[in-house]
Amino acid sequence: MDTADLIEVLADRLGPASVLTAQSELEAFQADLLNKYRVPALCVVKPANTEEVAATVRLAREAGVKVTPAGGRTGFAGGAVAREGTSQIVVSLERMRSIRALSPVDDVIVCDAGVTLAEIRQAAEAADRYFPVSHGGEGTSQIGGMVATNAGGNNVLRYGMARANILGLEVVLASGDVWDGLRALRKDNSGYDLKQMFVGSEGTLGIVTAAALRLQPRPRERASALCAVPGPQAALELYNTVRSSAGELLSAFELMPHSGLELHLARAETTQVPLSGRHEWMVLLEAETSIPDLDLGGLLERLLGEALEQGLIEDAAVARSLAQRNAMWALREGMAEAQASSRLVIKSDTSVPVSAVAEFVDRATKAIHALLPDAVPIPFGHIGDGNIHFNIGAPPGMSAETFASNEARLSDAVCDTAIQLGGSISAEHGIGQLKLDKLRKAKSKTELEMMQRLKNSFDPDNLMNPGKIVEADDPALKQEAQS
Ligand SMILES: Cc1cc2nc3c(=O)[nH]c(=O)nc-3n(C[C@H](O)[C@H](O)[C@H](O)COP(=O)(O)OP(=O)(O)OC[C@H]3O[C@@H](n4cnc5c(N)ncnc54)[C@H](O)[C@@H]3O)c2cc1C
User: Fold this and answer.
1) How far is CA 258 from CA 13, 280, 444, 462, in A?
2) Helix or strand or coil: residue 245?
3) Which of 317, 340, 363 is at the close of a domain?
4) In terms of residue numbers, what domain contains 184?
5) Ligand 1 centroid to residue 146 C-alpha, Å
6) What per-residue string of b and e applies to 355-393 under the rule 16 or more CB within 10 Å gives b?
7) Whether residue 328 sits in one domain with residue 267
8) Can you give the C-alpha Rg of the chain in angstroms?
9) What CATH number does residue 59 fall under?
């Protein structure tokens, strides 16, 4: 079967409306969110159910055509866009949108892969439960994408990454077989935990078609505070102090530099920061509990009062209403959004041990200034998880083109600093096609070979999302292994 036949056979099997070939319809699937990658696809297939996903994979396999799964396409690593130089179809899960089951007793929700993260959070809330994975892209990102990227977000500190909230999966394998691993068990030591292979695999091992997700008791009290801190070291000490007293109630602890906030404030029309004066560093922290009437606001006020006396904070505001809380988070999310599509900001997604965050910020700042003295460090993010997005703003007046020509060495400097401190080049966004070189630099030969063996055993023909993370029988890795 050649590629033209494949499109025809797919249209026969799934119905013509499920196979898009018009350029205008393909457009959105051929570029990533940041417009870094623009790669043509043969067609976009939109299966309506698991059996149609399996049929699509089997037919693509017969035609020797590669398969790229696409969720909400909010990923930052170019994972949902085909790889240049291969003939690929994109399989979009967006028509698979059913919530299959929800059991408050089991604390489990089972859904199709195309349901959005926001929809799952709403469905949980309607059943008086809570699904804790949450981030700025949740209105569009899908559960399949969340699984495939092992998404993190704002509540990892308390609830873990997506991985910690997944009980079971249904996956279409590269063979076209369906693996029904949709178990909702809390305890299951019956052999290898296969679902974990697919979490964070970025579509390279199979297509996730459904997930059983773990729910939590719904938080009934929440308290949030915005604090001005003298610097990252003080932020770290504040984190340690608050965590010692608030324990598991602490659910978010976010570092916000003025350099990042400035970008947001420049775009926002009415936003106000609820602290007086200009502060180089701020922290947004939040505590939550499912126990009604617990005075979390009072607890935070007491802890922050003590921190003020110790010089760990310079000023603080505790949110007294939902509107005030939302306004604080709007600052945090607005800061990330202002950078997301800017060509004058180089993005990073590094993590280090929590204890090394301040040293990381200090060393990475020196490293980028050694390369480009007027570059603007914008280190922000999930300090409680050691996940600092050490973004870099262009020196004032520098053109986007000149700045882009510095990207590789600036980005390497940040990643190298993280690695030296025992960190990771990708905390939550994944490798995709963005960080292939960095992955090879960061991992040992032994680890890369283990990854290669895993890929070979799940997808020996390199059908699934080739050119992301690792290829089956990757020639570059083979060469490295021999050298
Ligand atoms: C404003 C904003 C804020 C964000 N904040 C965060 C954050 O704080 N933390 C965080 O972790 N991420 C964040 N993200 C990134 C993004 O939302 C997550 O990576 C998300 O999990 C991706 O889901 P998606 O459905 O959009 O996946 P896509 O972007 O469509 O795909 C991502 C990868 O998963 C694969 N994939 C998608 N669906 C499937 C499937 N069903 N089966 C197998 N593979 C599949 C794709 O091939 C690709 O490799 C943010 C994004 C935006 C736009």
Assistant:
1) 55, 5, 37, 45
2) helix
3) 340
4) 99-217
5) 6
6) ebbbbbbbbbbebbeeebeebbbbbbbbbbbbbbbbbbb
7) yes
8) 23
9) 3.30.43.10
Domain endpoint, select from 166, 189, 217: 217
Residue-level pLDDT, tens digit, the chain, 483 residues = 888 899 999 999 999 999 999 999 999 999 998 888 999 999 999 999 999 999 999 999 999 999 999 999 999 999 999 998 888 999 999 999 999 999 999 999 999 999 999 999 999 999 999 999 999 899 999 999 999 999 999 899 999 999 999 999 999 999 999 999 999 999 999 999 999 999 999 999 999 999 999 999 999 999 999 999 999 999 999 999 999 999 999 999 999 999 999 999 888 877 788 998 899 999 999 999 999 999 999 999 999 999 999 999 999 999 989 999 999 999 999 998 888 878 899 999 999 999 999 999 999 999 999 999 999 999 999 998 999 999 999 999 999 999 999 999 999 999 999 999 999 999 999 999 999 999 999 999 999 999 999 999 999 999 999 999 998 887 776 666 555
Model pTM?
0.94
DSSP code per residue over 317-335: EE--SHHHHHHHHHHHHHH
Residue 153 Cβ inside 6 Å of ligand 1? The answer reads yes
Q: How far is the CA of 291 from the centre of ligand 1 (A)?
A: 32
Q: How far is the CA of 138 from the centre of ligand 1 (A)?
A: 9
